[in-house]
Amino acid sequence: MSGSTPGGAPGSATESGAPAPQVTERPAPQQEGISERALARIFITPSFVVMAAIALFPILYAAYESLFDFTFFTREDFVGLANYVDQLTSPRFWTAVFVTIAFTVVSVTLEFIVGMIFALIMNAAFRGRNVTRAVILLPWVIPTVIAGQKWRYLFEQRPGYINEWLGLGAIDWLGSGASMFWAVVIADWWKTSPFVALLLLAGLQTIPQETYEAAKVDGATWWQRFRNVTLPLLAPSIVVALLFRSVDALRIFDLADVMTNARLETLSVLAQRSIVRDPQPDVANALAVLTFILIMGIGLLFISLMGRDVVGDPEEGS
Amino acid sequence: MSKNPFVLRAIGLLAVLALVAAACGPAPDEEEEDEAGAPAEDAAFTWAVTGADGPTMEAVADLWNEENPDQQVNLTLLPPEADDQRTQLFNDQITGAGEFDVLGLDVIWTGEFAEAGFIESLEDMRDSVEGVSIPGAIESAQHEGELYALPYSTNFGFLYYRTDLVDEPPETWEELYDIVVEVQEEEDIDGYVGQGDSYEGFVVNYLEFLWSDGGEVFDDAATESLLLDGDHAEKAITFMQDAFEEGVFAGDFNTMVEDDARLAFQAGDAIFMRNWPYAYPLALGEDDEESEVADDFDIAPLPAFEGAPVDTVSTLGGLNNAVSTLSENQEVAREFVEWAATDEGPQEILAEMQPPPTMASIYENYEDIVPEDQLPVYEVLNEIREDARARPPVPGYNSFSLAVQENLHSVYADGADPGPALEAVNEAAEEALVEDPEEAIEEEADPDEDE
Fold first, then answer.
1. Which residues of chain A make contact with B87, given a CB cutoff of 8 A?
2. Looking at chain A, which residue has its C-alpha nearest residue B87?
3. Domains in chain B and their CATH numbers?
4. Fewer beta carbons within 10 Å, N or C terminal of chain A?
């Protein structure tokens, strides 16, 4: 918006206007009229509008809808935050929050450990590396719903593969209680560790080989090299991997729905049930907004706590 | 770029896959012909019904089209899952599309659809079905005493038992329990399998336990919940709890749907099974089914509890046909609904295929109509159909059913306390009767504040 200084014209005129003298009548694009920053905003506007229409609008519309009391048959009164009050005072909601967060913490931790091991393996140079990489990535390629069905079949008591392999007798994995939680965690662990490994592998490959050689020359052991070279240099990738996975795990729906017939009630399961099975769209909208706030909040927390220096620009806003 | 051998190979692989896909899929023309009985261009009206028994529905639609060349029906098969069907039927109404003239409604949806104004009252057609259709089916097509649909198909649950392990089928649940314990002393075998996953099938099974102790969910006029009158509700769920804990129910009863139970029974892994008639020919080993028990099983009515006022109870399944209020072809739609309920043609197709018909006369003359291998099924159905019960088609049946699934599943499968769970179900039952459940919640909220 700010106008540029009038004296700046000659330098730019030689660049663009020299062949055609008349061009001086028109303002030189770089210097007069609008600034570079404003121009950038103009260019960004169409994509922002599209993004807003497909991403922002549904979120805001859901938030708006959640303020009404209605079913599919009837559109009724504006009730303000009543739907939220209902949810925030319901033990069922808080159980779902607890299950969701517990699932996220446990599964992301496990996936990070195994993902790191996988990434180190995939990064090492050895015969058959390509095959190993492909095998490690396979679970991630399988659609989650199909993976969920496969794991359900393995966990079921009939024919009871997992119980038999582990010599567990007749453990009821999927029917009820804490075992459902662990069954879904294990399936997710298997399914998503490769994804973490892939993100970490990308980071590992940016670490120059020379740093390792230097560390070796200095007599560092494998552990010292991992601890003092790999981890610090990998930090940006680790933050990205943990952030992606946490935000993703907080939305967990498919495995819980397929493996336990939605008995493992996470926030997304609760919201889906409200909209499809009850159906209570007002409640579902409120749940969706609460889930959004939770995920957004945890994502921001993540960035501010761990990743300020790697994710965002440290100069920004100062 | 294309010099990269990996890219070349990938392109080659894609080309092969494309060829294979083309070779496997039917040519467009053949596909058109496969859709039986659907000359969509000049159809007079559309019948939307579950795809679960697709071939039966197609045969019925074909028969109508044969008899009514001027008023062809366009058959739209909905997804086989009940929830998905309901969503599609809802969407047709909510969006005002009105593409469906005749709606094949699960017996539990009558109240909900009638209350929402989605379907026409068919009370003036009562005379044509009264005395023609079986009473339980008519009951399931009513809302507040008014007929909103006409019966079409039905379904009964009964007991499958192993004749090589059990001499006489048990008449009471207590007897069944003892037989299982006894047989399990000798053999390593599961006891009772049925529908125990947290879904509608579990509600069906629970209601059978409840009703077979003389318990009720509602009074006759559906004005109040009787769930907590007497200790029937608690007895039913604690029986399930004990049976599950003690291994009388199979260890995976709590994740079983119809086909899980059938496969376990068919593999010879269970002594007793509660299931619908569809499992009978399959357990006999027909249609190339593998069955370990083809020669070693029989069927009987479900037991009741000792000292109960009834000998047996079966929860009714099935479909009723209703006319959409958005339909512009109401006259022919009503004609079709009546024909499907009262004409021998479609009803006999149901008897020959699946699911069972609702016309009483077919059950009387079943020997001439039903295929020979199905005769024992109809013998049992005749024994139990008088005692079969419709699930209460109240407007809020759906939320009542969800409350049963969400509260009672963990009671029997996870040892939760039955008291509060039954209180919650009772509350849901009360709300299911009220026109606006939100108001009921507010009314309920006041006494809570006094506490």
1. 276
2. A276
3. 35-155+317-370 (3.40.190.10), 164-315+394-450 (3.40.190.10)
4. C
